[in-house]
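sorry for the late reply, my laptop died twice this morning and i had to redo everyting from scratch. anyway the thing you sent over, i finally got around to it. pasting the sequence first so we're on the same page, its 260 residues, then the predicted structure underneath. double check i copied it right bc i was rushing
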Amino acid sequence: MKAKIFFLAVVLGVATPGFGQSFNVDVGDPNSPYGVPADVYAAGAGQSGTWNAVNAGAFNVPLSDLAGGATGVTLSNSGGGGDFDDNNGGTTGDDEALMDDLQDVGGAGMLATWTFSGLANGSYTVYTYAWAPDSAGYVSEVSVAGSPDPSQFIGGGWPGGHSQGTTYALHTVDVVDGTIAVSIETNSGFGSVNGFQLVGEAGEPCPWDLDGNGDVGILDLLALLAAWGTDPGGPPDFNGDGDVGILDLLTLLANWGACP
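ok and here's the structure:
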């Protein structure tokens, strides 16, 4: 029995994507004079929490969730130029920390693609900050692969706070393969990538997904079998009778496949 309990702990302790994940990302040199926004800073999405500092050369950088906890999600960039910063006269405090350091995408027609990987499948809202602190005439075009929302042009003078179309683009997307790819192309002047906010929508309850990867499958079955005959005080005792048994097994099998 000890072996079974140990196996259950291992299965459930595996770092896997969680459904409804959300992230804050500040793109640019974290050693620039502007630093990283404070955890209380909610920006355009109204979402406070830990800000991940990621530079332009990002490749499979692990991301922390809003509470600062480790996740299985990574962020990579391909294309565009390096880190850049400029002290805009209008920004202050956390706005300055997010917006005044960035990736310089390059001149007209240059493209950078930022990819989130390891996400749980589900619905997400993507805020892409693509504002140039050094010129109101610089415009970036932002698109998200698979989103029903069209590409959006971002640029203009600092409006005194965040505004869609000026400081950020807003896209919704349904993730089916664990990834979100955001492309930023320079429309005029030089393109910018200041950061991202990813807002994951919590899906319907899926208690049969014991390992939290958004899918009821073999690892969940093995976890149930490892707990057979015990009273875990919750899943995988799905019927709450104080014993993991045949009825719980049948329930898991009836919900096999992707969570709703």
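Residues 34 and 97 are 5 Å apart (CA to CA).
thats about all i looked at so far, will dig more tmrw
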